[in-house]
Amino acid sequence: HRTAVLQAVERLLCETGAALLDEPLAKSTVSVGLKEMTMSPNWLPNWQQAGSNIVVSVVRDHYHTTMDMVLSYIQPGELPHHALLQAVSDISCNCILEIATDMGKILELLVPLLPLAKNKKMKAMIPFVLGSLCESWTQYQSQAPADNILDVSQHFNSSYDIMSSWLPTTDLMVTEAVVLAFGPMCRFLSRDTLQSNLLGMVYAFLPLYAVESDTRHQIMEKSLSLIVEAGLQKARQVLYCHLNYVMIVMHSEICKSFDPPEDERYIYLIQSFIDLAKIFPQKVLEFVLDLVDSPVEQNQLGSLTLLFNIVHQDYVSKHLKEYVLKSFTETLGNPSNKVKCLQSKVLMEMEKRGYLGLEGTVVALQYIVKNCALADDITKSSRDHFNNSTVRHSFEAVLCCWCTDDTVTEMLWSNLLKFISWRICSDALPVLCKHLNVLYSRLTEKGYSLISNFEEMGYPASPDNMLIRLLLGASQSLRGGHECLTLLHSLSPIIHPRLHSVWEHLIPPLASYVSESQGEEILLEQWQEGLYVVC
């Protein structure tokens, strides 16, 4: 009955708002909530949580008149009730600016109680509260003037010394509470303490990651990322010496059950890799690129996601860009469609970040075109997110993106023209012709001599071969016929000097006929007759 009544009061406060209570009623409500949640020393979650929620709701709107009532339940030399600690933690999250005025007092009450914690419940609860207070204090620091901020680092250093002595322990609840507190706490630790204990902090995560549970992993990853961030600020040399170990821990967690597009679940660890790459770019990129070529698909997916996020940054130097592109092209060729979809994202991002034209560009371009020629996979359902059609469309988007880059127009023109004669690129002919037409227009506007440059680049196929390939493509009226005809018209001077004047009045009307049909059924006889005239 007590639980039901408390839950009813809790719902009433949520619906009407505790701000409507006058001061005497607010104090009376907090007093009842404190009494109820601390009445029994046993763990009675429904009853105690309802009382705690009432206290937090009222204190949030009446902090300065009620918080002293909460703190009066914490007495020196006596462990407070576990429900009271939960309430203090929740208050710190809901009253960031207000609780800052009492932060020194709260820490002076709690930190001396750490050595008194003997059972696992209290060893878990006190670090949990201290971690919440650290997070609250960090947020307060970001808003308050620097000269008005109280120095609480001594309290957190003392807390760390005691809590770290509880590890290692076979009790996962205690390990988790301590490890989660390390993250927000480490920014307040002294430089010497952090340098001496950085590796041990990272090592403490391993027992938790070994447990198959997803419920708390994102919180643990946030804690680990905060440790890495603090290490970059205060223990950079130590972090560099153990960088591979730290990256292995984070990478293995990212790849454990990675399934695109779930990279948001690992946002904190991904951000840690980005931060590490900013300070140690060569070492981080070598690590990631080495694992991009892993035989394990999960490792490849996680590594490609990391590579994509690092490539997205502006701090990668030109020298490293060339190394990244060349190394990345050496890993291309995996048959997995999931992997290919992520590869296409990386290749698209490389165009946006100025990687094109560096060593490895032509190899990457060839890989893109080969995937633009993928046939539909009849063995997979059309609902499969990673079927051949999805991969083909993703690489077609990459090729389209690359062809907008004005700095590599000539390179793209010469290489895409060569791919027309490649048998493996036959199914990509409509896409090739479409983008070659765009490149042709851009080059002619610049006064580029297509005929002389065509001869200089050593095109491997004869003009007759090109004519046949494009005519075959043109025969597919609704599948690239317009693009093939348009390119054929543009290249007519290369095939034969007199062809341009002959085709000038034949091809444009025929190409327009296809374009104006807008996908409607074309009269086959009329189309064939037009092609016969062209031939």
TrEMBL record:
This is Uncharacterized protein. Keywords: Repeat. InterPro entries: ARM-type_fold, HEAT_MROH2B-like, Maestro_heat-like_prot, MROH2B-like_N_HEAT. SUPFAM superfamilies: ARM repeat. Pfam families: HEAT_Maestro_2, HEAT_MROH2B_1st. It comes from Lepisosteus oculatus. Residues 189-531 form the MROH2B-like HEAT-repeats domain. Signal peptide: none annotated.
